[in-house]
Design goal:
mainly alpha; 71% helix; 0% strand
């Protein structure tokens, strides 16, 4: 009984990650390489995709709609980077959430293997999403250096900003991957959710553009704080808001624990449904 209780605790989360680190890394590399297998440019797409999105959104919102970032006149280059920060955070969320409901149903062969630790499948998805986010961050930093001629040292705080975000994503991955086994319709819901959050998050507009009553409410959106803090440390050269990140981290830890516990309890029925 103690072993089962331990597997549902934070110790079980850390233990699962550490004990299967080699397997997770191997599967994540295979997942990333599999996406570009057979393509002419291969891994170059990991850099080309974010560049193309950056150009498209800059053209639409900067040139066509002539949008400004609040009262700030950023110029097209910095305006594009401001949008890009939000897109990186949202893209990582979208990749994880859209894939979560099909993680177990798409890997039935692993579920049938008694000895295979299926709780690591969400880690594999997160690793792949993080790799693509990292490539996008590389593009962001390179273009920022090209435009502004320097990089703020506050960029070193990026791990502090993204660590609680990783906890939140893992909680969602465990929860929605388990739900996806029993509720197939959830796959359709995830697509609607990620699209809605793209426009309900401060990706294309600053929080100051919202009516006063909504400026506080938008922080209930789990993407808002991470987007704002990423811009603060990468573009504006400000230190992160440690108090807000600590609160976000605490809530994310609770979500991760609940998600992991739900996954571990639900996994007993996976084989019967599949």
């Amino acid at each position: 009984m103690n072993g089962i209780n331990d597997s549902l605790s934070p110790r079980g989360i850390v233990g699962s990650l550490i004990n299967h680190q080699s397997l997770i890394s191997q599967m994540a590399r295979r997942e990333v390489s599999g996406r570009y297998r057979g393509s002419v440019m291969g891994f170059f797409w990991t850099l080309l995709n974010p560049l193309l999105m950056l150009v498209i959104y800059t053209f639409i919102f900067g040139y066509v709609f002539k949008m400004r970032w609040g009262d700030m006149d950023l110029g097209y280059g910095t305006f594009a980077l401001t949008l890009f920060c939000g897109l990186i955070v949202h893209g990582m969320f979208a990749e994880c959430i859209n894939r979560a409901p099909g993680l177990i149903t798409g890997n039935v062969n692993y579920v049938k293997k008694v000895v295979f630790p299926i709780e690591i499948l969400p880690w594999v998805t997160l690793y792949a999403a993080f790799f693509h986010a990292l490539m996008s961050l590389f593009v962001l930093i390179a273009i920022n250096l090209l435009i502004n001629g320097s990089i703020s040292p506050t960029i070193l705080w990026l791990p502090v900003v993204f660590l609680p975000y990783v906890l939140f994503l893992m909680g969602c991955l465990w929860m929605f991957s388990a739900l996806g086994v029993f509720l197939s319709d959830i796959q359709q819901l995830m697509g609607v959710l990620t699209t809605a959050l793209l426009f309900l998050s401060p990706v294309f507009y600053p929080i100051s553009a919202l009516p006063d009553p909504l400026q506080g409410l938008i922080y209930l959106n789990p993407l808002t704080l991470i987007m704002e803090q990423t811009r603060n440390i990468v573009l504006w050269g400000n230190h992160p808001d440690f108090e807000m990140l600590a609160l976000y981290g605490l809530v994310s830890l609770v979500i991760a624990i609940i998600g992991f516990a739900w996954f571990q309890k639900s996994r007993r029925g996976f084989a019967d449904v599949l």
